[in-house]
Amino acid sequence: MPGLGNLHPSIGIGNVNLGTHELKVYTSVESTLPTSPVSINELATELQLISENDFVNQLRHTKLSSEYEVVTSQQLLFSKLRLNGWTVAPESEALPYVKRGEIREVELIEAPLNIRQDLIMFYNISSELSERESRILNTVVEVCQKLQQ
């Protein structure tokens, strides 16, 4: 599968692009990282906290730092982030912590303002033969399309 480095899977796998979500860089409000835009080189010297899901799927924003820690859940990741380090996370998941003043956004010099991550659903191609499973797939796609609007 594309996310795992396999461009052409060996079995019948279908996929649907469900849309994208916006990613941003975050750190503790007490972090030594400047509040002005920083370079990726500056981030590389600090501890990077990486969600286990991002690490396993080898997403492009993992392992940017020479020192990193893989964290098993988003809740634990944000708890650790309040103490030290930085992370790349969906804006929708980080926003409650930002609003409570526990973490802050870090602006990057080299990155565009909107970093987006594709959300792709993979499924067994034989699911298209089942009326029930086809309805489920179609419903998921419709709901995601409405959420992206």
Give a verbal description of the structure:
Helix content is about 30%, strand content about 30%. By secondary structure, it is α+β, with helices and mostly antiparallel strands. It is elongated. The two termini are about 25 Å apart.
Radius of gyration: 18 Å
Summarize the main sheet: 4 strands, antiparallel
Q: Give the helix proportion (percent range).
A: 25-40%
Our estimate of the beta-strand percent is 25-35%
Poorly predicted spans: none
Question: Which structural traits does this protein have?
Answer:
149 residues, four-stranded antiparallel sheet, two-stranded parallel ribbon, elongated
Please write out the topology.
Layout: E1 13-28, H1 40-43, E2 48-51, H2 52-56, E3 68-71, H3 74-81, E4 86-90, H4 91-99, E5 103-106, E6 115-124, H5 131-148
Parallel strand pairs: 2-3
Antiparallel strand pairs: 1-4, 1-5, 1-6
